[in-house]
Design a protein that fits this description.
Number of domains: 1
Strand content: 5-15%
Number of helices: 13
Structural class: alpha/beta
Order of helices and strands: EHEEEHEHHHEHHHEEHEHEEEHHEH
Number of strands: 13
């Protein structure tokens, strides 16, 4: 008879980028495994890849399973003999982004440079929107605050425009004049950040994936999230969590807030039948909201009855927490509130469910989420963020990638058999949250990366972020000015060659 283990599921959702499948979950788990082994006393831990039963011809490496089960698991045996099984799932959606083309780059820059002037759209006429509420900032957004937000967006757009010119010119000159092959940073930037634009598009350039043909690309992205939620709920874990980075926090939040009737539309028939068999879905119950008028997104499958729905309170019964880091949800609440509505009509979460939001003032993407903690229900709570400031990295932008990491000196000290120091990083707190099953508790103390709210440290870090923005802009502006004569000379030489060619061409007919 096997040893009884506590089974804990975790869904990882990647943000913007061109991640390959399982790349994000692999990178995110590594610091967590280090954090497990840095615990005192240290437990034994074994990590296993759940391989696939099939692989591509002449595959160069092992193929991870893409089935509903977890592709990775870690078995942890505590010093007291307790055994726990951490099962890691991934929501991968990078392939939904459109391939790079010149047309895509032109449309991206037109969108990026005009975003500061776009109107704040609040309308949502989809069926089921009656159970939703738009996110709201405490006291509302005044015209002055909205104006400042648009000014900040204009400034950021201007920085990237200057950067696109100066860096693009330098890359061009390095290739043409020096024969070097530096990475095309402008193209990389367009491919990465265009995921934000993609999430707001009404259609994909090629019509979209066949199961979401002529529907917004975000339908395909949400489908990945919702189906993974269903797969995890069907696993009967003792508890499960969602860990979402960057734009992935919007994907995760949408999946968790979708109304029960629309949730069913994202499923395939086998998953639906499994939910019905386990009592997680079926016909509308007396206390569930009735079907509402309006179009449905995505379209309703033909095998569903009109009053079929997923029971959100049953689906999220084992759900214990959401961790978002580097999250742009407040920026969506400012510009596109209809993309991140709050489900206030179908209570699903218990009082034990936590939402932890981590942000660094030097991260221009992430922020304290202030528009999602103003909703309360009399019956059951709506999940609300607990905002925690954290020193991910001092460098602007790079900090967006450094939340889940383990300090190298701690690993070296562990290898030498000396004390690795205090366990006060985000990875440590996340591991404790998953394994202990209690409340998320960051460790303070001397040299702690956690920032006290409204402290001098937080204010100085925010000022440092503005200073770096100014310095970056000045450097890019200088590069742009320096490269202008070079570009003028290149254009002049090309024009001269064209005129010479035309003279020879027309002179030959005389």
């Amino acid at each position: 008879m096997g040893v009884l283990r506590e089974r804990i599921g975790t869904i990882f959702v990647h943000g913007i980028g061109d991640h390959r499948r399982f790349e994000h979950v692999d990178a995110a788990i590594r610091p967590l495994i280090d954090a497990v082994r840095l615990r005192t006393p240290a437990p034994d831990a074994t990590v296993e890849i759940v391989g696939s039963g099939a692989a591509t011809l002449r595959a160069e490496q092992d193929t991870w399973t893409g089935q509903p089960g977890a592709p990775l698991r870690a078995i942890v045996r505590q010093p007291n003999g307790k055994q726990q099984e951490l099962l890691f799932h991934e929501v991968w959606w990078a392939d939904v982004n459109e391939p790079y083309t010149l047309k895509k780059e032109i449309k991206f820059w037109l969108w990026g440079l005009s975003i500061w002037s776009l109107p704040n759209k609040l309308n949502n006429t989809l069926s089921g929107s009656s159970v939703m509420q738009m996110p709201r900032f405490p006291g509302g957004l005044s015209k002055l605050q909205m104006g400042i937000a648009r000014l900040q967006l204009f400034a950021v757009s201007n920085v990237f425009l200057v950067g696109a010119y100066s860096i693009g010119v330098l890359v061009f000159l390095a290739r043409r004049l020096l024969g070097l092959h530096p990475p095309d940073l402008v193209r990389v930037f367009v491919n990465y950040v265009s995921a934000v634009k993609l999430y707001n598009q009404t259609k994909r350039s090629d019509g979209g994936f066949i199961d979401a043909y002529r529907e917004p690309p975000r339908v395909s992205i949400r489908r990945r999230m919702i189906r993974t939620i269903v797969d995890v709920a069907l696993q009967n874990y003792d508890r499960w969590y969602v860990v979402a980075h960057s734009l992935g926090s919007v994907v995760a939040y949408n999946g968790m807030m979708e109304n029960g009737r629309a949730l069913a539309n994202y499923l395939d028939e086998p998953r639906w039948q499994d939910l019905v068999a386990k009592g997680l879905a079926g016909r509308r119950r007396p206390h569930d909201p009735p079907p509402a008028p309006g179009d449905m997104l995505p379209r309703r499958p033909v095998w569903l009855a009109d009053d079929d729905m997923v029971y959100r309170d049953e689906l999220f019964k084992g759900f214990r927490g959401l961790l978002t880091y580097g999250s742009p949800l407040d920026k969506f609440a400012t510009l596109w509130p209809a993309r991140v509505p709050i489900n206030v009509g179908e209570a699903a979460f218990t009082s034990a469910t936590e939402w932890i939001n981590i942000y660094d003032p030097t991260d221009p993407v992430g922020a304290s989420l202030d528009a999602f903690d103003t909703v309360t229900l009399a019956s059951r709570p709506v999940i609300q963020p607990r905002n925690l400031a954290y020193k991910a990295h001092w460098l602007l932008l790079y900090s967006h990638l450094c939340y889940l990491r383990i300090a190298r000196h701690r690993l070296k000290a562990k290898a030498k058999g000396t004390s690795p120091g205090p366990r006060n990083q985000l990875s440590d707190a996340l591991v404790d949250w998953l394994l202990d099953g209690g409340s998320f508790t960051p460790a303070g103390g001397a040299k702690s990366p956690w920032i006290v709210p409204q402290s001098r440290t937080q204010k100085l870090r925010r000022v440092w972020a503005y200073v770096m923005w100014i310095l970056i802009y000045l450097v890019l502006l200088i590069l742009a000015v320096v490269t202008i004569p070079m570009i003028v000379e290149i254009i002049g030489a090309a024009w001269s060659q064209l005129l010479t060619f035309l003279k020879r061409l027309f002179g030959s007919y005389k």
